[in-house]
Amino acid sequence: MFNAAQLSMALDRDGEEPIYRQLIRHIRAQIESGSLPSGARLPASRELADQLNISRISVVNAYAELRSEGYLSAHAGRGTFVARDVTPDRALPEPSKHAPQPLKEQLNSDRPLREMMRLARQPGVINFGQGAPSPEFFPVATLRDAINHVLERDGAKALGYEMPEGYPPLRAAIRDYVSALGIRCTTNDVLVTGGTQQALDLVIQALVGEGETIVTEEPTYIGILDIARTRRINVHGIPSDHEGMRIDLLEQYIMERPPRLIYVMPSFQNPSGSVMPLNRRRQLINLAQQYHIPILEDGVYHEFRYEGEHIPPLRALDDYGVVIHASGFTKMLLPGLRIGYIISDGKHHQRLVRVKQAADISTPGLNQRAIHLMLERGIMAQQLERNNREFFRRRNAAVEAAQRHFPPGAHWRVPQGGLYLWVRLPSNGPTAAELYIPAIQKGVGYAIGNVFYPSHPDPYVMRLNYGAHRPADIDLGFKRLGEVWRELSHSYSDIERQLVL
Ligand SMILES: Cc1ncc(COP(=O)(O)O)c(C=O)c1O
User: Fold this and answer.
1) Span from the CA of 409 to the centroid of ligand 1 (angstroms)
2) Common-topology check for domains 19-109 and 138-381
3) Phi, psi of 149 (to 5 degrees)
């Protein structure tokens, strides 16, 4: 093991500049002057915090920011290092246009930011950072009835091993449900999974080998990045706009290095909220067919539309069998029973069943039967209708609150569905990571945008889950966020003024 570099610096504990900002400034200066050379290992966050007598979270925060700027890199199990290719005047990393980020760089590279985001889980913090509807939406009473009914009806049969493909009546109900969305399939094409997350993981396991590359939207769902890390595959982000993945840039990439899989969320993309219009959906399918690259469609937010025209899922437009459709009843009904599914045909389905069996034999039979009964009783349809009405109200509250409280120059698109507002802060103030700890201290949390980018992070973006909060809390939370942004930007300009004088 190398020895960590010794860092010495004078910190101003009574000044206005937050300690973690001072740390960032000192470390950056030492890297730029060459006194911290490329490849030098930095002390562990706890060690440096003890050495300087400051809180560990200040160090975690500073390291995270310096990593997002490209000054530092993290290596799983070995520590934090000065980046190899750091140059004196560099502000942001410029990874090569087409090369996927090396596997080692991707491993755990956003862990400190994600650790930091756990701080939002404390009383008094209005947390817009989570990725789910709040528990107030869960149908507790109807689930209790459904489970009791299943146990009375099926007895011990409900508690044994289920077939790996899934409980047959649930598979048939899923076929009927997706048919109503325009997806033509038979019961044989349906595989029941442990939530959408397992559906994505099974597809990756079945189709992508270690060291191979998939492409995703840039930014993308954090869970696919987690799967990629644990399965040791590379992810390349294709730049995306408010209509989703850019097909021209995807084609350019494919021509140079055909990936193994294209992963997309065409409706209410997480985190950006983008919706891919019909013509782009068709272009994507044609391109994938032309180059024989399967598309993995994640439809988990498809039904969360409260405004505008319904657009069919990719799988409903696919005449070639190039799209594998993954989704679940987790966001629409409740996440805790972990029921998702994959619609695919032919050889993909056979292979996926084998991978599923190897993973966990089958999804719990009791959960499948309870969800099946709830679908039959029309509970999901009722809940979707009620929830979408409430999300619409919350969306309006969020947009009004953002207009009222966020700084001039902050930018967002008004989502027509989903749960999230994706906000870009003006770049003349703190980044989303810099703002985070002061925001928590003020009682508001959010998801730091950097964690959603496989290739080129944008340090000024954040994701706000308005769907999880009542309008009064949305207003209060956004007000706190606006205030803390203003306080921090003032202290920045004061410091800049002092430096100039
Ligand atoms: C886009 C997306 N896909 C998949 C999932 C995983 O969902 P599930 O709870 O069904 O596993 C999530 C959860 O946040 C998600 O946002």
Assistant:
1) 31
2) no
3) -60, -45
The pLDDT value recorded for residue 252 is 97
Check pocket membership of 340 for ligand 1, CB cut-off 6 A: yes
Residue 455 in contact with residue 101, Cβ under 8 Å?
Answer: yes
Q: Which residues contact 78 (CB under 8 A, 6 or more apart)?
A: 41
Domain spans in the chain, listed from the N-terminal domain onward:
19-109, 119-136+383-500, 138-381
Q: What sign has the CA pseudo-torsion 117, 121, 125, 130? A: positive
Domain 119-136+383-500: state its class.
alpha beta
pLDDT of residue 102: 46
Does any ligand 1 atom lie closer than 6 A to the CB of residue 70? no
Could you tell me which of 348, 360, 359 has the C-alpha nearest to residue 323?
A: 348
Burial (Cβ within 10 Å: 0-12, 13-18, ≥19) of residue 190: buried
Contact indicator for 237, 259 with CB cutoff of 8 Å: no
**What is the CATH architecture of 19-109?**
Orthogonal Bundle (1.10)
Which two three-digit tokens encode residue 291? 């180059």
Listed residue (92, 126, 118, 227) closest to 448, CA to CA: 118
The enclosing H or E element of 262 equals strand 261-264
**Count of CB atoms situated within 10 Å of the CB of 419:** 29
Pocket test for ligand 1, best of 130, 263, 330 (most atoms within 8 A of CB): 330
Distance CA 237, CA 269 (A): 14
Fold type of domain 138-381: Aspartate Aminotransferase; domain 2 (3.40.640)
- Ligand 1 pocket member 298 (CB < 6 A): yes
**Ligand 1 atom with least separation from CA of 329:** 10
CA distance 452 to 464: 13
| Contact criterion met (CB below 8 Å) for 166 and 199 | no
pLDDT tens-place string over residues 125-167: 999 999 888 899 999 999 999 999 999 999 999 999 999 999 9
pTM attached to this predicted model: 0.80
Closest CA to 455 of 307, 236, 256, 277: 236
How many whole angstroms from 34 Cα to the centroid of ligand 1?
Answer: 44
- Ligand 1 neighbourhood includes 271 CB (under 6 angstroms): no
Within the chain, which residues score under 70 in pLDDT?
1-3, 76, 85-110, 492-501
> What is the Cα–Cα distance from 83 to 67, expressed in whole angstroms?
8
From 326, 267, 317, select the one nearest 288 (Cα to Cα). Answer: 317
Structure tokens at 22: 């001072």
Atom 13 of ligand 1: nearest residue by CA position: 131
